[in-house]
């Protein structure tokens, strides 16, 4: 060991080149918060089908909802790596429905206001967003278009100093309980290039013509509310346009980079938590006169999964680091989403298998985690779509 | 009123401690370290005194390696005003810590020193008492309530069979028990603010203390595994076993 390595080892601190002491302190605080204020209540939230507002307000109080946002709104102006810490630690909670509720708000929806919002829009909402007083949703996906964002059909028609929205959205996280919806709609006329015909709008809860349809009944993420939304002659002031008309597609693509990094980090947090709790089970469960952990086939499989999760986590950190430096990380972020989204499912399948019959029971944590993980290779960019992005950037 | 809060960097309470292969101590390499939980309670109590308008300044002091600075940062992020790091590598025994703290007290003149009743690594439960003796100050140990008055402080202590309240003339030494309070989180904005709070760096020599250990550790071993229990059929059998097998009555 070199002197440097020796010092690192003795210091017991992170040996990662990516993280500063404040990242580590943030991680410590979030981990404690998850242990004390999330885990004891998670099952009740799963039952009721949503995460209560109080916990989001509490996260606001602790500064967890404003990690990257300007100090004038109560934010802490940290970087992508701090966001990754948040996502990873919330993923470790084993309640991903809770985690996604918070992360859609912080990193997938409110980013549309923070990045493209006018001064007036930001002044009106950002402080409340950071405090958890206003919760955000992002509505892009429609019954007829998911992966293919340009294929959306919801239209926004200019009418005087207003836009009138018509159409519907589906699978919208926080769709039932949000206060602010960032909605993608078509604005371009006939013949407009598809990539130039999408715009983003801020629609506040209670706007006439916005109707929240049913809360959707899901395979997993049951403590997250997911809705179908209808826009019927829904008038919003022209001032509610987010960014420029026709620039929505680019905004969505830009914010997808962050969303995918966050989903990757969350997935690696979930996978690590599953490995940890499975290890506890394997070392105590006896079969054939010894703990299951003594079985070569099990040890080898778990060791390989731990290795992959370590690799996935480092790829997430690397992508986040590139992003924090302002570099284009589309290739790495696409790899993160494809790799981590699939890997978390591979981990859950093995961990559930090694739980035996217990893994099939609703009362076991791994059963819930396996259901929760399923969407990680679908939402925010399906694995196949992500791999196309990687493939496009290969060999040239 | 100035409050001094010593904070120790210890193995995190969640870590399963393992003995080093050569038995020379416990494994510290790549182990998560945190602030001693009793010290977190001490920091919290000091902050509450400040919030009530009783304390005016809180100084967090740590004696340990360079990384103990992170422990001080945590105290600063919770709400302490400034820090002092007394850099000492290797084991520092309670008496050496108490001597160094006496040096810090002589320099800073606090009205109150609030320490954890013990550190969860070696569980010595000595430093507060030794410090009070070296300073010739009154001490209130195992505090479950701290109520400063005019020039004095009432400390409710958890003792066998109940609570005892002692009134100490200040300056005084108080050590915290588990039920004194529940330490707050360091919010992210406060973590960021703490980066700008000053931490002074000192050495043991600055206080004229030789921190070399006076004790020698002969060996460190894992505790033996617990034996399986037995179910007894009757009270009579229990008494019989306690008498003849366990030989405790
Ligand atoms: C629980 C949940 C929460 C969600 N939250 C939100 C939200 O808050 N806001 C929002 O806007 N959306 C949300 N979504 C929608 C999500 O982003 C989409 O489901 C996802 O983008 C896939 O779109 P789709 O469902 O229309 O599938 P489709 O686009 O119809 O694709 C179906 C499948 O075909 C395959 N496929 C698609 N394209 C290709 C291709 N080019 N090459 C090869 N194979 C391909 C993939 O396997 C994909 O899973 C959520 C979805 C779920 C399930």
From TrEMBL, chain A:
- Please list the cofactors this protein needs: FAD
Q: Tell me, what is one Gene Ontology molecular-function annotation carried by this entry?
A: acyl-CoA dehydrogenase activity
All residue ranges annotated as the Acyl-CoA dehydrogenase/oxidase N-terminal domain in the record = 21-132
The signal peptide stretch is none
Q: Where is the Acyl-CoA dehydrogenase/oxidase C-terminal domain?
A: 246-394
Could you tell me which Gene3D superfamilies the record lists for this protein?
A: Acyl-CoA dehydrogenase/oxidase, N-terminal domain, Butyryl-CoA Dehydrogenase, subunit A, domain 2, Butyryl-CoA Dehydrogenase, subunit A, domain 3
Which Pfam families did the record assign?
Acyl-CoA_dh_1, Acyl-CoA_dh_M, Acyl-CoA_dh_N
Name all Acyl-CoA oxidase/dehydrogenase middle domain ranges.
137-234
What is the top-level taxon of the source organism? Bacteria
Q: Which UniProt keywords apply?
A: FAD, Flavoprotein, Oxidoreductase
Q: Which family does it belong to?
A: Belongs to the acyl-CoA dehydrogenase family.
UniProt name for this protein? Acyl-CoA dehydrogenase
- Organism, scientific name: Enterovirga rhinocerotis
From TrEMBL, chain B:
Q: Where is the Electron transfer flavoprotein alpha/beta-subunit N-terminal domain?
A: 23-211
Alphabetically sorted, this entry's keywords are: Electron transport, Transport
Q: Cofactor(s) for this protein? A: AMP
Q: Out of the domains of life, which is the source? A: Bacteria
Enumerate the Gene Ontology biological process terms. Answer: carboxylic acid catabolic process
Named from the GO MF annotations, one term is: electron transfer activity
Q: Which Gene3D superfamilies match?
A: HUPs (3.40.50.620)
CDD domains, alphabetically? ETF_beta (cd01714)
Pfam families with a match to the protein in the record = ETF
Where is the secretion signal located? none
State the function annotated in the UniProt record: The electron transfer flavoprotein serves as a specific electron acceptor for other dehydrogenases. It transfers the electrons to the main respiratory chain via ETF-ubiquinone oxidoreductase (ETF dehydrogenase).
UniProt lists the family membership as follows: Belongs to the ETF beta-subunit/FixA family.
Assembly, in brief, is: Heterodimer of an alpha and a beta subunit.
Official protein name in the record: Electron transfer flavoprotein subunit beta
Q: Which organism is it from?
A: Enterovirga rhinocerotis
Its organism's taxonomic lineage begins at: Bacteria, Pseudomonadati, Pseudomonadota, Alphaproteobacteria, Hyphomicrobiales
